[in-house]
Amino acid sequence: MNDLPRRAVTAIAFAAVMLGGIMLHEYVFLLLMLIIHTGCLWEYNRLIRSMQEYNPHQRKTATVYTIVSGTLIFYLLGTGFRFLPYVNEYIYFLVVPLLLGYLVLELFLQSPSPLRNAGLQVTGIVYITFPLAMALFFPYAHENGVWFPVRCGLILGIVLLVWTNDTMAYFAGSLFGKHKLFPSVSPAKSWEGFAGGLIFSILTGWLLSLYFPQFGAAGWMTTGAIVSIFGTIGDLVESMIKRAAGVKDSGSFMPGHGGFLDRFDAFIFCIPFVFGFYMMTLLMK
Questions:
Q1: Using one digit for the tens of pLDDT, what is the confidence trace for 121-170?
Q2: What interhelical angle do 217-245 and 26-47 show, nearest 10?
Q3: How many other C-beta atoms lie within 10 A of the C-beta of residue 53?
Q4: What is the pLDDT of residues 158-203, one digit of tens each?
């Protein structure tokens, strides 16, 4: 209980930064997502340390390549280098040599387990970089509209749905939780908490349909369900990674709340599934 004021202040500051970063301007949003991406990728690399066989020099080299190549892939997929002249859509294929670079790196590092090391690094790119690059796509799908609420509305709605799901799952689980959801990975989660988060996320989806034009009521309510289901799975996946690494939190950048991955695990994991639903609705129009 003594930690409650610090957690409350941190949560309010976090919410203000997130809402401001999304709603103010596309460049502020791009900077916010870049910070989130770098923080999550950095923490992921710390989590997999115990699973790799590197000496200090090899680890430093692999980490530098992961951050640099991950940032390039993130920017490449998310924006298509639209802020640079003389490029076209084929530039997306540059992702392939950047990924192959992980194998080339292992060739020169000569570590005892090159495939395992490279596989763990590439998993971080798939787990963090690709989904966050998809998050950048949503505002650029409506480039002719005003930034708020047309261009940033969908990503703002996803963030609000993630927060609703997390909060209501916590309260529902605290009040009614009896049946464990996935005790081997996250003993505190219950089916009752999951149901509470799902119901309130769907209701919040309906409320979002009144203010944001990206979907109708059915579309936003479906998005609420997708965020709740896959956000919960994303939370469990991050817990699995932390359990394998033998740590409680992924980092400590938010006092009382853990690290970047602890805060964005659900958001990152649900993005590809919302992206798929969004593409499906565009094709059906």
A1: 999 999 999 999 999 888 877 777 899 988 999 999 999 999 999 999 99
A2: 30
A3: 12
A4: 999 999 999 999 999 999 999 999 999 999 999 999 999 999 999 9
Q: How many residues does the chain have?
A: 285
Q: Give the span between the Cα atoms of 81 and 134, in whole angstroms.
A: 14
Cis peptide before 149 (omega within 30 of 0): yes
* CA within 13 Å, CB half, 98: 22
Query: H helices of the chain, where?
Result: 4-23, 26-47, 56-79, 95-109, 114-124, 130-140, 153-176, 191-209, 217-245, 260-284
- Contacting residues for 137 by C-beta, under 8 A, at least 6 apart: 78, 275
Q: What is the pTM of this model?
A: 0.93
The greatest distance separating any two alpha carbons of the chain, rounded to the nearest whole angstrom, comes to 59
Dihedral angle of Cα 7, 8, 14, 18, to the nearest 10 degrees: 140
pLDDT digits (tens, 9 = 90+) for 68-92: 999 999 988 887 656 565 556 667 7
For 158, residues 6+ apart whose C-beta sits below 8 A from its C-beta are: 135, 223, 227, 267, 270, 271, 274
Question: What are the structure tokens assigned to 165, written together?
Answer: 């799901």
Task: Say if CB 92 and CB 76 are below 8 A apart.
Answer: yes
Asked if 204 contacts 164 with a C-beta cutoff of 8 angstroms, the reply is yes
Give me the pLDDT at residue 8, please.
84
